[in-house]
Automatic annotation (TrEMBL):
It comes from the Bacteria. Residues 1-22 form the signal peptide. The chain crosses the membrane at residues 128-150. The keyword Membrane applies. Residues 152-179 form a coiled coil. This is tRNA (Guanine-N1)-methyltransferase. SUPFAM superfamilies: Bacterial hemolysins. Keywords: Coiled coil, Membrane, Signal, Transmembrane, Transmembrane helix.
Amino acid sequence: MKRLSALIFSTLILLSNSTLFAQETEEKVAPLDGGTIENQFDYIYSTSNNFQEYKVVKLTNLDKLKGNVLDSLVAKREEAEALKVDIRAQKDSISTLNADLQTSLEEKQEALDAKDNFTFFGIGIHKAVYSSIMWLLVGVLAVALGFFSFQYSRSFRKIKKAEKDLLDVQEEFDQHRKNTLERERKMKRELIDAQMGKK
């Protein structure tokens, strides 16, 4: 019986030593040096001992986990700051691009206005307004040309009629003068004949 109890005792010692050895080897390759925070918490939970209803955690593991968590938080903060810097840079870039776009749109509008406008005697005029004014001017000139052409042809007809009337009157006048001269000569002859007949 002593042998059996010695065998059980030695088996228990071997099992406890192997468990301790396994825990030590697990601790040596512990995921506390790498892996995610969740895996590290799982590792701490699995390697801790039970004391009544509490878990007993090794202080070195807890310190290591705390350091890892703080390092992760610092890394995440740095990453967040880098992202904020990137976001600020992108916002500045977007603002610059928006300003460039606004400038380009204004230049485009100025180019379109310059294409559609020009200066005439120092006055800026839109091409459509200038075209309307020119067509109105052409219309007024066409009406004036028609009016003056009509007046000219009417005056020309009056002048031709007046010239014809003048020629007729001159012919009449010449005829009348000839008749008058002839009568005057006739009367002078008669007067001369009458004076000679008295003598």
